[in-house]
Amino acid sequence: MSKGPVWRNFAGDQSCRPAVFERPTSRAEVGEAIRRAAEADRTVRVAGAGHSFTDAVLTDGTLLSLDRMNRVLDVDRATGLVRVEAGITLGALSALMYDHGLAFANLGDIDVQSIAGATGTGTHGTGITLPNLSAGLKSMELTLADGRTLEVDEATDPDTWRAARVSVGALGVVTAVTLQAVPAFTLGAVDTTAPLAATLDNLDELVDGNDHFGFFTFPHSPLAMTKTWNRTAASPSPRSRLGEWFHDMFLSNYAYWGVCLLGRSRRGLIPWLNRVASANSGTTRYTDRSYRVFATPRRVPLTEMEYAIPREHAAEAVRVVREIAERREFDVPTPLEVRFVAPDDAYLSPAGGRETCYIAVHQFAGIPWEAFFRSVEQVMVAHGGRPHWGKRHFQTAETLRRQYPHWDRFQAVRARLDPHGLFTNAYVERVLGPVGAGEPA
Ligand SMILES: Cc1cc2nc3c(=O)[nH]c(=O)nc-3n(C[C@H](O)[C@H](O)[C@H](O)COP(=O)(O)OP(=O)(O)OC[C@H]3O[C@@H](n4cnc5c(N)ncnc54)[C@H](O)[C@@H]3O)c2cc1C
């Protein structure tokens, strides 16, 4: 235990100085930390890998990091069930599972998140038949406010199960999870550019006709930078290390970072820079292990908002969001990202109950983002949008409850598991409201 150092998120724009910072190594130590916090009247939050853009982690109470609880506890190759401690990162687990012939069915753009942090905010990849990562969980071990350990799964307590999978850390500390892996697979990837207009006109065909389809599009450019990834029986023939570094690190990070810096200092150049960046992104074809295709390094400092809207509104919403991003007053040197996700049944899953299109907007560090994000949010809300819990948004419990049909059921579970609001902070209070504020289920 130590007096907390300053904790910062990955983007560097969220920070706090917790009264106590602890890195437990076991469930028992988590329980002890919770007991000490409760006795001292301190609230408790957990930091995963700090890759949320919101203030989801921040606390002036006790902050726990589970980065030392990162072991694989059990792998059953026959069933594909994998039990891990909650602090393991998606990337480390992907590599370990591959050695057992197993894989995540899908992943997002990066894999440095902890499994509990990623699932707790509804982190997702792209692929219309594939739900977010939390839907791949089979059971979860929580340490509750009273120090009890609760193992939750669908069979024993479906209500708590649907609440616990996406809970932004508001129910307790997740100490271990069991996930359903799939047999390891290879993806054939084609990353290329196509006219945005044609991409939007043929969106259903592209989304339904591929295992994983998504795209980026820069404001002011007529192009979409598409990712079309399909399972293949071919053996992996990955890019050379140099080729991979050149594309994923140099072009996608350092060169792009330089372009953003130039755009930030000479705002009038942004439309031209965006067109040049899109037109020169080229075509890359490769075949590799699934997790090596899904996730790439992302180093450019930016902030992000992402909304989940019903899939059928995708093309129209993209067109409108691009118009907003092209307004001179917003100076946006960063692309929109558009992805597709299958429905799931977690009470607070942004993709809950409906086929979903996620649209993300970004802003480079140092360029004002709030007015831009607020304008985009209005469009998203008009389309029934639900924000990604780990990315910036301006909603409150009052507005969010209308978007979630099972809101009150989540709140009833929360009131039962954390009756005194031990696992709260300003973010949780803002987006979920005080404990007990929902209607009785
Ligand atoms: C560069 C970048 C790329 C991204 N790409 C994607 C993407 O492709 N798809 C996508 O959906 N999202 C993406 N994200 C968002 C990211 O996946 C989520 O914000 C995710 O929650 C981050 O995981 P983390 O481990 O860093 O958790 P943190 O951000 O540290 O925490 C997230 C939440 O989980 C809670 N938490 C963490 N661990 C525990 C635990 N053990 N018990 C209880 N609560 C816990 C925290 O208190 C917090 O509320 C990206 C973010 C960045 C910065």
Describe the protein.
This protein has 14 helices and 21 strands. Helix 4 (158-164) packs across helix 13 and helix 10 runs antiparallel to helix 11. With 441 residues, it is α+β, with helices and mostly antiparallel strands. Strand 7 and strand 8 form a beta hairpin. The chain folds into two domains: 73-183, Uridine Diphospho-n-acetylenolpyruvylglucosamine Reductase, domain 3, CATH 3.30.465.10; 186-387, Vanillyl-alcohol Oxidase, Chain A, domain 3. The strands form five sheets. It has an eight-stranded antiparallel β-sheet, sandwiched between helices. A five-stranded antiparallel β-sheet has the order 7-8-12-10-11. The protein has a four-stranded mixed β-sheet with strand order 1-4-6-5. The radius of gyration is 21 Å and the shape is globular. It binds flavin-adenine dinucleotide. Flavin-adenine dinucleotide is lined by residues 10, 45-52, 56-57, 66, 86, 108-110, 113-114, 116-118, 120-121, 123-124, 168-169, 173-174, 298, 388, 390.
